[in-house]
Structures are given as structure tokens and as C-alpha cells.
Amino acid sequence: MLAIGAIAAGGAGVAGIAAVAHAEPVQQFSFQLSDTTADGRFTVTFTSRAFDTTGGPPPELRENWLRMPGGARLRREFLRPSFWCDGGALINAASWADPQPRLYNVLRNLDPAIRVMRRTARTRQERRFLATLQTCRRAQIGAGTALIDSRPGIEDVFPADLFIYFGRPIRRGDVASLSIVGIPQQDSAAVRRRDILIRGRADVSLRIVNDPSPDGRYGYRMILPTGRIQGFRVSVAQVEVKAPGLIMQKDGRELFWFTRPTCPASGLISFEAFYGYDPPTEDITRQASNPCPRYGR
């Protein structure tokens, strides 16, 4: 029962919509880049906030995407099945490894479940589950939390834990995807009041497509899921995700999954976000510019 904001490589920035006198949706997002290294690695912290000035649930999004800074590209070494995690298959495999309601305990650290299944896997299905756990451990790029607004279907806004993985291309022409597994937080009073949330597990995917702007300012477009999920209208009131990304060993050195974004003459890199609504709500496009990251020598 989740749909969430995107994660991308880049620096720190904030974009939002100022509230006006009449009711309208408000969308805000920010990126912070940290832990940069001389070989081009970085950690991205993404945050977002969404609400309506009436205090009610925001209108449903028709379309939602984020454009990343130009030059930040996925390295071809990571565009292979060994780094493609399927969120739905992961939920099934992790639930098999530990059928207790707190699936979070398995997902926050897959290693214990992998060790057990290495010793006990006998059937073909169990070996498939083991392979899924191993692939998703290799493909995890980050984790975080979200505040989910499913009003009026679920009257209480509730918190959820998020686990983010690299995934296969979804449509022909896509570069790759991000697979996001969400679990309502079991210790929340809002979750404990509803059986559907206690049992809730969800996975959604963000498509990554190559759509460079003519001026080179933007590169990849990350297309977020919209529409109802399992019959519920969903808005992500808040989200915070920390994503160290992926690393692999190649030729005796560590290779980071993204190349560095191109630093324009202005010294700023940019993101662009689009929020599309059905009439009469107007579509929103906003940009955020951030200082080019310093990687050192």
C-alpha cells in the first residue's frame, strides 16, 4: 500500500509549492549528498513532504516523475540480472524464511536468513528463495521510512519502513528500475488498530529511462508509480530515505554504480520534479539547483 518518491544521484536542494489562500496540493522535496570519496562514491539522502492546504488528503496524481542531473549514468557493469531484485519475490522469500508478522526483522538484515537457508534449502522452491535473498542483498541501495496517507479508505495516517533495491527494466527501452518494498510499522498504534495494515506488505517500482534534455542539464527520468494500490488511494505525506548505493569489485578496485554528474559552468547541478493532476487541479513543475559535489583527490 505504498507509492514513494524517487532516489537519484546528486547534491542537496529543495523545491516546493507555496501555499496560497485557496486549497491546493503542496509538494516539497530535497536531496543531500554526503560521504563523497575521491573515486566518485556518495550517499544520497532524499526527503519529501506532500499535503493539501485544506488538511484533507491531496488529490490523486495522474503522473509523477523526477529528472536527474546530466552526466549521472548507471555503469553497464551493474545492468545485469545479478543486481536485479524483484520486490514481490523478495517478500515471498523473506516471509518463507521467517513467517512472523515482523518481516522488517528479516529485511533489515538478510544475512541470517541466507545462512539458515544455505543449510536447509532442499526443494527447488527453497533454492529459488535462497537465490532471491542473495540477489536482493547484493542489490540493496538504501532504506528509509514513510508516512502514508490513504484517507478516506484508512482514516489514520500511518508510518511504514521502506527498503530500496536495484531492479530490472520494466518496459522496452527502460534502463533499469528501483524496487521498493514497504511494510507498515507494527509498533504504531494506527497500524495495530487495523488487521489489513498488520498483514500489509507492498512493492512498487520506479522506472528509470534515458531522456536527456537538449542542453545537457538533465539526464535520466525516474517515473514514479501513480494510481490506486490494492484498491486504496495513496499519498506519501512524508518520506526519508538514505541510499549509499551499490559497489562491486572489478580489477582489484571498487566500482560505484553511478558516474559523476556533469558540473555546469554555473557550478550548480539541477533536479526537476513534475506532479500531474486531473483538472481542475493544475500540474506543477519545479526545479532544485545544488552546488556541484566535491569528491577530493
TrEMBL record:
Keywords: Signal. The keyword Signal applies. The keyword Signal applies. It comes from the Bacteria. Residues 1-23 form the signal peptide. This is Uncharacterized protein.
